[in-house]
């Protein structure tokens, strides 16, 4: 059944009108969902009994069930959810000095097939609906309510490729960003893509002010195509052209993600190639320690090797940071918790 979380503010008003209710009814329902955060239609006490029963016939509120929670000693918490059709998905909450961030999944499994990633170990079962993404946020916020804490940031960096589920992701962000919705400022929202070029143009033209992060992981086509099959469809020249267009249209700093894989993309020549590739862009590179995945051979570099790579980039005028590791004592790698639970036969 459809979830009320699937409808953004405008769509809720449209729905109310289509029922020959006042548009204002949509506004009221939205307030109940996101201001009061009710999970039962009958709690919407300013709606008539009849209106409520129509809503209950057509919609659920929360489409997810929380099935597992793993808490790390550093506060990072992984949540495993199950959808109504039995799919499993995971979300992560991370604690930073600037606030609490939730990493949201956009698909069940992933078709991008990146060589190092646990998410692609199972093919995409389906796209997540926008309501299922909203529900990841709200379920975690409900857990945080118990500690009087709130989520302040969102990264769409969980399982799935957000630009392979563009419309639902944008719809989800419209609700979380709306000041009558969850009110998360656009500058606190980041979408990460492996480089689906046509969607980068589309996103650039929308001028949303959300941050864009691009998973690069290699500075030349030969290596990138080996690690990330998407590079065969959209090689670096096309990707960089799209990114430059985004940079012209949106005066925002761009983040590039680069996992340092031991013996693969961590050599001095890679750092120099990377600096050349990013020359002239308002870019910032996030060097990521690799979270090992049982099924994969890749290894992370040592902290010292990461520092050498970092120094070389800085010397070549590329701003960068080495990402702090989170949740090392729980199934940290993207998609790893879900895969482990599928192996145990809990779901799909
Ligand atoms: N599909 C999108 C978003 C999901 S992946 C994308 O590719 O950007 C989010 C980030 O985590 C990507 O940069 C991805 O390459 C990285 N990642 C995947 N597996 C990882 C692992 N085992 N260790 C560290 N980072 C990983």
From TrEMBL:
What are the GO BP annotations of this UniProt entry? rRNA base methylation; tRNA methylation
| UniProt entry tagged with the keyword Mitochondrion | no
Q: How is the cofactor bound?
A: Binds 1 [4Fe-4S] cluster. The cluster is coordinated with 3 cysteines and an exchangeable S-adenosyl-L-methionine.
Q: Name one GO molecular function term.
A: tRNA binding
One cellular component (GO) term of this entry: cytoplasm
* Listed name of the protein: Probable dual-specificity RNA methyltransferase RlmN
Where it sits in the cell: the answer is: Cytoplasm
Mainly resides where? cytoplasm
Which residues of the sequence carry a binding annotation for S-adenosyl-L-methionine? 160-161, 192, 215-217, 291
Database matches in CDD domains: Radical_SAM (cd01335)
Protein task: Specifically methylates position 2 of adenine 2503 in 23S rRNA and position 2 of adenine 37 in tRNAs.
Source organism: Absicoccus porci
Record-listed [4Fe-4S] cluster binding positions: 110, 114, 117
List the active-site residues: 90, 334
* Classification of source organism: Bacteria, Bacillati, Bacillota, Erysipelotrichia, Erysipelotrichales
Q: Which residues form the Radical SAM core domain?
A: 96-323
SUPFAM superfamilies, per the entry: Radical SAM enzymes
What's the family? Answer: Belongs to the radical SAM superfamily. RlmN family.
Tell me the cofactors it needs.
Answer: [4Fe-4S] cluster
Leftover remarks: Reaction proceeds by a ping-pong mechanism involving intermediate methylation of a conserved cysteine residue.
| UniProt keyword terms in alphabetical order | 4Fe-4S, Cytoplasm, Disulfide bond, Iron, Iron-sulfur, Metal-binding, Methyltransferase, rRNA processing, S-adenosyl-L-methionine, Transferase, tRNA processing
| E.C. no | 2.1.1.192
InterPro entries referenced in this protein's UniProt entry, alphabetically: Aldolase_TIM (IPR013785), Methyltransferase_A (IPR040072), RlmN_N (IPR048641), RNA_MTrfase_RlmN (IPR027492), rRNA_lsu_MTrfase_RlmN/Cfr (IPR004383), rSAM (IPR007197), rSAM_sf (IPR058240)
């Amino acid at each position: 059944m459809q979830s009320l979380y699937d409808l953004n503010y405008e769509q809720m008003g449209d729905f109310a009108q289509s029922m020959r209710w006042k548009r204002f009814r949509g506004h009221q329902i939205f307030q109940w969902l996101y201001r009061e955060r009710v999970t039962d239609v009958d709690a919407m006490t300013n709606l008539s009994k009849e209106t409520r029963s129509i809503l209950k016939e057509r919609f659920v509120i929360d489409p997810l069930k929380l099935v597992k929670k793993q808490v790390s000693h550093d506060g990072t918490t992984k949540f495993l959810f199950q959808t109504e059709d039995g799919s499993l998905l995971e979300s992560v909450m991370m604690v930073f000095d600037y606030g609490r961030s939730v990493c949201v999944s956009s698909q069940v499994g992933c078709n991008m097939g990146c060589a190092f990633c646990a998410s692609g170990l199972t093919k995409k079962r389906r796209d997540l609906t926008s309501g299922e993404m909203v529900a990841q946020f709200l379920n975690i916020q409900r857990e945080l309510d118990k500690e009087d804490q709130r989520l302040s940031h969102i990264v769409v960096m969980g399982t799935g490729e957000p630009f392979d589920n563009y419309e639902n992701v944008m719809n989800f962000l419209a609700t979380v960003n709306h000041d009558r919705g969850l009110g998360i400022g656009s500058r606190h929202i980041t979408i990460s893509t492996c480089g689906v070029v046509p969607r980068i143009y589309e996103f650039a033209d929308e001028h949303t002010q959300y941050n864009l992060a691009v998973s690069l992981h290699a500075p030349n086509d030969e290596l990138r195509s080996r690690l990330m099959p998407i590079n065969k469809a959209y090689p670096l020249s096309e990707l960089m052209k799209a990114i430059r267009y985004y940079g012209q249209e949106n005066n925002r700093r761009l983040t590039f993600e680069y996992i340092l894989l031991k013996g693969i993309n961590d050599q001095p020549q890679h750092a120099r190639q990377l600096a050349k590739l990013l020359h002239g862009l308002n870019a910032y590179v996030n060097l990521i320690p690799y979270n090992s995945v049982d099924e994969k051979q890749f290894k992370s570099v040592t902290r010292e090797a990461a520092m050498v790579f970092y120094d070389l980039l800085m010397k070549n005028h590329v701003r960068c940071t080495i990402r702090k590791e989170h949740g090392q004592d729980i199934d940290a790698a993207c998609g790893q918790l879900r895969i482990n639970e599928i192996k145990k036969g809990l779901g799909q």
